[in-house]
Amino acid sequence: MSKLPNISTSIFTVMSKMAAEYNAINLSQGFPNFPVDERLTDIVAKLAKENVHQYTPMSGYPPLLSKIATLVKHSYGRTIQPETELLVTAGATQAIFTTITALVKNNDDVIILDPSYDCYEAPVLLCNANPVRVALNDDYTPNWEIIEKACTAKTKMIIINNPHNPTGKILAKSDFESLEILLKKYPDIVLLSDEVYEYITFEEKHISAHTREKLLNRSVMVSSFGKSFHVTGWKVGYLVAPEYLMKEIKKVHQFLVFSVNSISQIAISEYLDIVSIAEIGKLYQEKRDYFRQLLKNSRFELMPCEGTYFQVASYAAISNESDVDFCKRLITEHGVAAIPISTFYADGKDLKLIRFCFAKDNATLEEAAKRLCDI
Q1: What are the CA-CA distances from residue 245 to residues 207, 240, 250, 256, 287 (Å)?
Q2: Pair 196, 308: CB distance under 8 Å
Q3: What mean pLDDT comes out for the span 7-33?
Q4: Most buried by CB count within 10 Å: which residue of 28, 174, 199, 233?
Q5: Long-range contacts at 4-13 (CB < 8 A, ≥ 24 apart)
C-alpha cells in the first residue's frame, strides 16, 4: 500500500521527459545550461588529488560553516553560532524534508501557500500530518486574513518561499509585519522560510527572515549553494535555526544522510574566498531582461519577475486550453518546454499561466524566443 497514494510523477520529470522525446528546448526544469565559473572547477580539479574524500563532520565542513556564518552576517547583519545553529545539507530539498520530519508530528497542520513548490507536501504527509493549502492572491501577494483563518491550535508550521518559485514574487516588508502579528497570536507555530533564490533578486531587495528580529527564535531558514552558484547537481544547501530546533533537526539528519559530499563542501568553502555574491543577481537580471526583450513581440503577456530565474507568462491571448494541455502542445508543435502553473496548486487552479526558466545561455534563449514568437 502506498504511503503517498495521491502523489504522482513530478511535473518537472514529465515535461523534461517530453522535451527529450521531441528534442524541444527545455525551459521547464530549473537548471542552468551555461558553464560553471572556471575558478570553481579549477578548485575542484585541484582538490580531487588531495585527501578530501572521507566523511566530514555531521554538521558540515568546519571552515565552510564558519564562512556561511560570515556570509549570513555580511548579507543580513545576523550573528549565528556555526556549531549549534547551522547545518549543511544535501541540497535544499533535503533540508526541507529533514526540518518537516523533525518538527511536525502526527495530525499537526502545516500551512503551504499556493502556488507552491512540490517538495513541501510529501514530508508533511509522511509525518501523518495535514497539509493546509492556502492560495495566494492572483497577483501572488499573500492574503493574511485568509492565512490567519487557516491557523488553529493544530497548526505547527507555516512555509514561505521568498523569492517565490514559480512566480518570482518577493515578499514585502508589510508581509513580514503581518506574519509577525500572526505568529504572535500562535506562539507554537514554526516558520520554515525557503530562501534558495535569496541572491537572485533584481530591482526590489530581498527581505530575508534573517533580518526579522521577532522571527529568529522560531524560524528555520533554508539556502542553496546549488542555486546561488549554478551547480544544481552538487546538491549542497544549508539551513539556519535556533539551537533548540536545530537539535531536533540534526537527530533526523544524522540518520538520513549523516554528512554531505566532502569535496563539494571544501570546494565551496574555498570558492567563497574569491566570489562576489553580488555577481549572481546581476548575471540573472541581465538574462531576465534579455529574455523579456526577446519575447517583446510575442503574444505572451509577461508577468513581473522580481527574483528567481523564472519568468511567468500568460498565454490567454493565444489559447483557451488548459495550461497542462497548452504546455504539452508547446513541446510537440513548437519545440519549447515550460511548466504549467496549475500544477503548483492543490486544486489545480488554472489562470492560463506557464513558467519559463531563463537560466540558459543566450543562444538557447534566442532560439526558444524565436519559436515562441512564431506562435
Answers
A1: 22, 10, 9, 17, 38
A2: no
A3: 90
A4: 28
A5: 4/122, 4/125, 4/126, 7/121, 7/122, 7/125, 10/118, 11/118, 11/339, 11/340, 11/343, 12/118, 12/339
Banded model confidence at residue 257, pLDDT cuts 50, 70, 90? very high
- Terminal Cα-to-Cα distance of the chain (whole angstroms): 45
Taken in order 40, 46, 48, 53, is the CA torsion positive or negative? negative
What is the rounded CA–CA span in Å between residue 140 and residue 115?
8
Q: Residue by residue, what is the 3-state secondary structure of 232-254?
A: HHHCCEEEECCHHHHHHHHHHHH
The CA distance from 73 to 89, in Å, is 20
Q: Tell me whether strands 219-224 and 190-194 are parallel, antiparallel or unpaired.
A: parallel
Please check the confidence at residue 18 and state whether its pLDDT lies above 90. Answer: yes
d(CA 119, CA 285): 26
Phi, psi of 160 (to 5 degrees): -120, 150
Cell of 367: 532560439
Contact between 292 and 304 under an 8 Å Cβ cutoff? The reply is: no
Whole-angstrom CA distances from 339 to 26, 31, 76, 133, 181 are 10, 13, 33, 20, 35
- Residue 297, C-alpha cell as written in the block: 513581440
229-254 exposure pattern, b = at least 16 Cβ within 10 A, e = fewer: bbbbebbbbbbbbbeebbeebbebbe
The proportion of the chain whose per-residue pLDDT surpasses 90, expressed as a percent, equals 93
pLDDT of residue 169: 97
pLDDT over 90 (residue 11): no
- Cell, residue 108: 499537526
Taking only the tens place, the pLDDT of each residue in 28-73 is 988 899 999 999 999 999 999 999 999 999 999 999 999 999 999 9
Q: How far apart are alpha carbons 342 and 350 in whole angstroms?
A: 5
Here the cell at position 161 is 518561499
